[in-house]
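Q: Structure tokens for this one, please.
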Amino acid sequence: MTPSTPSAPHRPPLLVRLFTAPLSAGAIQRRARRTAEPITKRLGLIALLMLVPALVYAGFDLWSRRAPMLEPRHRAEALCFVLSQPPAFAPPMRVEPSAAQVRGRFAPSTPPELAVQELMHFSDPMIVRQWRRQVGDYPVSLMWLRLPEAEGVRHWLIVAWMEASDLEVCSFRFDDDSPTLTDDEALWGNRLLQRILVPAYFDAARLPAVRLRAEHGATMPAFGPPARG
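A: Here is the predicted structure, written as tokens:
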């Protein structure tokens, strides 16, 4: 009798082997990584897609909250803006500037000091000091005024000049109620004038190239400590 050939051992189906075959720790880790990688990539993509709109919104919100940049309307306003340029004017007392342009009210030959006196309606006894200086293309009138106010006396530094028939005026109110002009006021007034009485700022062909970032809706900078309540 011819001996029979032993048959090959029967292998269970693949699906059965997958659930019943013992797995090493390394194999388990490899399978876990292969399973987790696509999920991790999808989650990362979803997180990125969710982050982009948030970043765009935050950027737009930050941009919208930035104070707008103001262009000076005339030379007197530009000179007030100059004081806010670095290094910022930082006196120990409150100084509040204002600027005005009065168009066509005066003859071109009108002395600026007379024009500003008519505009502000102050009397000669209120003038503490008055002088004139040629700056760039314009003769500039300068004066310290002593003006009574409801809360006491205030000293004002006035800078005025004529541009054809237009009067330009910068005025600086010093918040110090001393009845006489103090040494500190005179010192910081001179420092203020050194900052703005620059020939390049009084070029008839152009305005000073300055802009002001308006904080909290303000249209004119103020300097020194907060206003006294």
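A few notes: The mean pLDDT is 81. The CA atoms of residues 94 and 141 lie 23 Å apart.
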